[in-house]
């Protein structure tokens, strides 16, 4: 059977081989930033912001 090379196959391979690991890395960086102990005070202040009465 002859393999058919098309734009869809090429795009699918590009997404699978390149962009998936990139987005996984970005996701891990965001989670690490959110859970980093140094950022706790800022996130706690932002969480209380809707409850403040100015």
Please outline the helices and strands.
Layout: H1 7-35, H2 40-48
What features would you highlight for this structure?
54 residues; mainly alpha
Description:
Helices cover 70% and strands 0% of the residues. The protein is mainly α.
State the helical fraction: over 70%
Arithmetic mean pLDDT: 87
Query: What is the tally of helical segments?
Result: 2
Oligomeric state of the chains in view? single chain
- How big is the Rg? 21 Å
Q: Give helix and strand order, one letter per element, not per position.
A: HH
Total beta strands? 0
**Strand content bin:** under 5%
What characterizes the major β-sheet?
A: none
* Global geometry: elongated
| Uncertain stretches | none
Helix-strand makeup class: mainly alpha
CA(first)-CA(last) distance? 71 Å
InterPro entries: Cbb3-typ_cyt_oxidase_comp
Organism: Bradyrhizobium jicamae
Keywords: Membrane, Transmembrane, Transmembrane helix
Pfam families: FixQ
Summary, kept brief:
The chain crosses the membrane at residues 18-36. The protein has 54 residues and is mainly alpha-helical.
